[in-house]
Amino acid sequence: MNPRIAVVIVYTAAMCMNGLDSTIVNPALLTIARDFGEPVSAANTVEVAFLVALAVALPVAGWLGDRFGTKRVFLGALAVFTAASAACGLSQGLTALVLARVVQGVAGGLLTPVGMTLLFRAFPPHERMKLSKVLIVPTALMPALGPPLGGFLTEHFSWHWLFFVNVPIGAAAVLLGVVGLREEKEDVEGGFDLKGFLLATPALGLLTYALGFGPAHGWTSPSVAVAGPLGLILLVAGCVHLLRAGNPLLELRLLADKVFASATVLALVTSAGLMGVLFAFPLLYQAALGASALDAGLSVFPEALGLMLASQVADRLMPKLGPRLLAVPALLLATGVFAALAVPGVAESAWAVRALMFCVGLVLGTAVLTVQIAGFADVPPPAMGRAMGLFTIVRTLGGALGIAATAAVIAASGGAHGQDTDPGPYRAAILVTAGLVALGTLAALRMPKEAPAPPPFDDEPQEEEAVAA
User: Fold this and answer.
1) Three-state SS letters, the chain
2) How confident is the model at residue 188 (pLDDT cuts 50, 70, 90)?
3) Is the pLDDT of residue 417 over 70?
4) For a surface tag, which of 228, 251, 323, 336 has the fewest beta carbons within 10 Å of its beta carbon?
5) Quick one: CA dihedral 285, 135, 8, 86, positive or negative?
6) Between residues 315 and 464, which one has the greater pLDDT?
7) What DSSP string runs through 197-230?
8) What does residue 209 show for φ and ψ, rounded to 5 degrees?
9) Summary mean pLDDT of the chain
10) Under a CB-based contact definition with an 8 Å cutoff, are residues 110 and 57 in contact?
């Protein structure tokens, strides 16, 4: 098999598993709590443990890929993720499930940046827009499909199948990767940045923990009150060290490139807006309007269809319009669509909800794909691993920040964590997500006008054939 085709297939399979697992458990938390005889607040640990473990693994992913080879690290993480998925499905108690989710999260934290590094090293900048059909599936489509799929499996089968579905896919992807992927290593100057690791890793873990538990347990609860400020202190100290170190674990100096920096900022705010609205709108639909859990999950499903169309739109329009002219109007439209979801009377109309969710996927997906492709156009291959690690960290924290912000607004506006039937707090939270997306237009104005140009004398026909296959 052509190694580039193998990269696309293995990457897509692995990232689909990872993307689904970030949201598929949410509709099943109540059922899991009842099965194990635990309160719902304790069952929420299943999701937060995954996100914290994922954040902890992200800082070291780029270095591991460069040092030991992207193929070896990626397939090793994929094998561990698959085995941990089986362990989650076989769990007979909450403690065992949480521990398995921690292992799953660590492996997932390595998968995302190392997988993107494999993909972007296999395709030069002028070809990456063709990958939009691949990138949209795991990064945005799968998290949107997670809630309805999780609700369906839990309601008609068992919550154990939320994890068992990964096993055959992961096993097949590992076998294909062993045969089809090429090994790539980069020369790593100097030793491992232990100080950066000891600062960045707990900082991300503590911040993710605080953002995950803060809305449910209260921002003044002892664990959250300690984890949040301590995580911020370690994050600041880590950034100072990483900017001064000769061979840092995370290359923050890449942010000196205004295009990459703009793409990273956009990743933060768009991820926060998208994950925030995917969290808040089902609550509005379920708590305030009386819909079932499955109906609430299905309410966001048209967003996935919009994302699929976005991959076609971005592929065709970016070479003609350029990143800036495509991303800025798309983000402005996305702001309006997000705000429309909060208009009284809209959520009560099923067809209005479907149309707006479809538009969310279409316009925001177009902007996200455009920015992600353009942001890495000038990153050299040796720096790709650490650039991807930094980008993924920011995007992951953005998603956690978006959920925490919307949950905090719901609580502050009078919502009682999904028990209040007043739609006002949920609509206020959705307006916050619209504001986050609007901030992205400022960063999009710094994107280049022109799309990445192909190098002279490239082997275009062969590359076109490989991507098409």
Assistant:
1) CCHHHHHHHHHHHHHHHHHHHCCCCHHHHHHHHHHHCCCHHHHCHHHHHHHHHHHHHHHHHHHHHHHHCHHHHHHHHHHHHHHHHHHHHHCCCHHHHHHHHHHHHHHHHHHHHHHHHHHHHHCCHHHHHHHHHHHHHHHHHHHHHHHHHHHHHHHHCCCCHHHHCHHHHHHHHHHHHHHHCCCCCCCCCCCCCHHHHHHHHHHHHHHHHHHHHHHHHCCCCHHHHHHHHHHHHHHHHHHHHHHHCCCCCCCHHHHHCHHHHHHHHHHHHHHHHHHHHHHHHHHHHHHHCCCCHHHHHHCCHHHHHHHHHHHHHHHHHHHHHCHHHHHHHHHHHHHHHHHHCCCCCCCCCHHHHHHHHHHHHHHHHHHHHHHHHHHCCCCCHHHHHHHHHHHHHHHHHHHHHHHHHHHHHHHHCCCCCCCCCCCHHHHHHHHHHHHHHHHHHHHHCCCCCCCCCCCCCCCHHHHHHHHHC
2) low
3) no
4) 336
5) negative
6) 315
7) HHHHHHHHHHHHHHHHHHHHH-TTSHHHHHHHHH
8) -60, -45
9) 79
10) yes
Mean pLDDT, residues 3-23: 82
Residue type, 241: H
